[in-house]
Amino acid sequence: MKKKLVSIILSGVLAAALLAGCGDSGSTGAETTGTGSTEVETSEATESTEPKGSPDQATEETTPLSGPSEANQIKVWVADNVVDFTNAQMETFRQLYPEFADFTVIIEPVGEADAATNMLTDVVSGADVYTFAQDQIARLVSAGALEEVAPENVAALENNNVSGSVEAATVGGTLYAYPLTADNGYFLYYDKSVVTDPGDLDTIIADCEAAGKNFYMEINSGWYQTAFFFGTGCELSYATDEQGNFTAANCDYASDQGIVAMREMIKLSSSPAFQNGSAAGEATNLGAIVDGTWDSGTVKELLGDNYACAKLPSFTGSDGQTYQMSGFGGYKLLGVKPQEDETKLACCDALAAFLSSEEAQLARYEAAGWGPSNINAQQSEAVLADEALAAVSEQLQYCIPQGQYPGEYWTLAVSLGDDIRQGNLTADSSDEEIMTALQAFQETCISYAK
Q1: Residue 240 confidence (pLDDT)
Q2: Mean pLDDT taken over the chain
Q3: Rounded CA gap, 418 and 394, in Å?
Q4: Which end of the chain is more exposed for a tag (fewer CB within 10 A), N or C?
C-alpha cells in the first residue's frame, strides 16, 4: 500500500510539550516471565501531568482529535501503566497534525504479550497501532498484522535508535516497527564496597568469597545461561512459518565454544559464593547478582549507599581466550496494522512516529521509567543518572534480540543447568563427557523444529 511520508524528527515545540507532560521518574517495568520468553509490565505508573494547553483529561480512555466519527477511529493498545501518559500526549499530537482532526484516537490498556496474542487471533478486530515485544515480530508479520515502515522513514529510525532495537524491528531485511524501548535484559548489580572490578568475573567471585558474600546467577535458565554460550560465539535460534510453527533450528552448542561456555558455568557453580537465582527479593548476604531493571528498587534497598551497576563482566575461558558475557536482549516495539484507507494509514504512521520519537521516549521515561531506544534520549541527563538503565543499555550492545523459542526449550535448558548443579558435570569431567551432554541438548533443540 502507498504510505504517506511522516517525518519522525519532531520540532522543538513537541519536545517542550511532551516534557511538560511528564511526571516523576519511576522504576522500569520490563520483566521476563517464568520461562524468560516474554516481557511483562510489573511497575505502577507514575501519574503524568497533561501538556500545557491540553484539555482536562477525560476519565474514559477515548481521546478524540475532533468530532467523534466512529468511521474514523484509531485504536491504540499500550500497557496499562502508560495509558494515562499516552492519553496526555494526544492534545500535542492534535496540534502537530491538524490534517488528521477527523480521526478519533481510542487508547486501550493492552500489554505487550496480550497485544501480540490478540492481533494474531483476529487482525481485523485488533488495534491500528500497538506495542508488542520483539520476540513476536516474525509471527505478526506472517499474520499480516504489521505494515512495513515507509522507506522514507527507515534511515532516520536506523540512525536515531540503538542498533539492537532496529535489528529487533526488522524481518527479512525490512523494518516493520518503530523502536520504543531498550531496557529488557540482564546485567550486573554489585556491592561496590565488596567488588573491586565489576568487569572481570573471576575478580567478582574472588571478592565475594573473600568478603563472605553471595554471587547470584540463574545458570539453569534458558534466558540467563545464554550469557555464556552466546558470549563464546555459540548460536541458538529458530525459524517459523506463517502459522508460527517452528520449521528450522540453528544450534551449535555441541562445539569447542560450547565446551568453553559449559566449563565456565561449571567453574562458577563450584564457588562457595555462588547461589543459583536471579530474584533480588530472595537474595541474602548479597555481593553481586545478575538481574534486570525490574529489580532495581529492591537491590537499592539491599545495598544502600553501596549500590552499583555495570554490564556483565568478561571471563577467561578454559582455552585461555577472553569472552564478553552476552545473552538475550529485549525491546518494546510500536507496530502499525495495514490499512485499506491511505489517509487512515498516514494518521497511524504519524501517530507511531510521534509516540516513538526522541521527545516521547524521554517523556515516557520520566513518566513511567521506560528505558529509551533512541540514542539521544539515552544520553539525556536523567537517563544517564539511572545506573540500572545505563548498565542494561551498555549490555544490550553485546546481546542478541530474543526471537521465538519453543516452550520445551525453556524446560530443556533447566536440565542442562541442573546437570552442573547436581554434580553430573564437574571440573573433572572430560571434554568428551561435556560434549556428550551438549550433543544431546543440541539434538533435542533441533528436534523441536521437525
Answers
A1: 82
A2: 86
A3: 30
A4: C
Q: Rounded to the nearest 5°, which phi and psi values hold at 324?
A: -85, 125
Q: What is the DSSP letter of 272?
A: T
C-alpha neighbours within 13 Å on the C-beta side of residue 296: 28
CA distance 197 to 74: 51
Instruction: State which H helix or E strand residue 332 sits in.
Output: strand 332-336
Instruction: Identify the band that residue 373 occupies on the pLDDT scale cut at 50, 70 and 90.
Output: very high
What single letter denotes the amino acid at residue 144?
G
Q: Which residue has the higher pLDDT, 67 or 236?
A: 236
End-to-end CA distance of the chain: 35
Residue 27 is given by DSSP the state -
Q: Is the pLDDT of residue 21 over 50?
A: no
Point out which residues pair with 7 in neighbouring strands: none
* pLDDT, tens only, 377-425: 999 999 999 999 999 989 999 999 888 899 999 999 999 999 999 999 9
Identity of the amino acid at 225: Q
61, pLDDT greater than 60: no
b/e map of 318-346 (b: 16 or more CB within 10 Å)?
Answer: beeeebbbbbbbbbbbbbbbebeeeebbb
Which amino acid type is present at position 116?
A
State the pLDDT at residue 150.
81
For range 21-32, the mean pLDDT: 36
Q: What are the CB-based long-range contacts (under 8 Å, 24+) for 38-44? A: 38/112, 38/113, 38/133, 38/135, 39/112, 39/113, 39/133, 39/184, 39/330, 39/332, 40/111, 40/112, 40/113, 41/79, 41/80, 41/81, 41/111, 41/112, 42/294, 43/81, 43/294, 43/368, 43/369, 44/81
Q: Are 39 and 31 in contact (CB under 8 A)?
A: yes
pLDDT digits over 37-59, tens only? 333 333 333 333 332 323 233 33
User: Where do the domains of the chain lie, and which CATH numbers do they carry?
Assistant: 12-183+330-401 (3.40.190.10), 187-326+406-447 (3.40.190.10)
| Residue 46, pLDDT score | 34
Q: How many other CB atoms are there within 10 angstroms of residue 226's CB atom?
A: 23
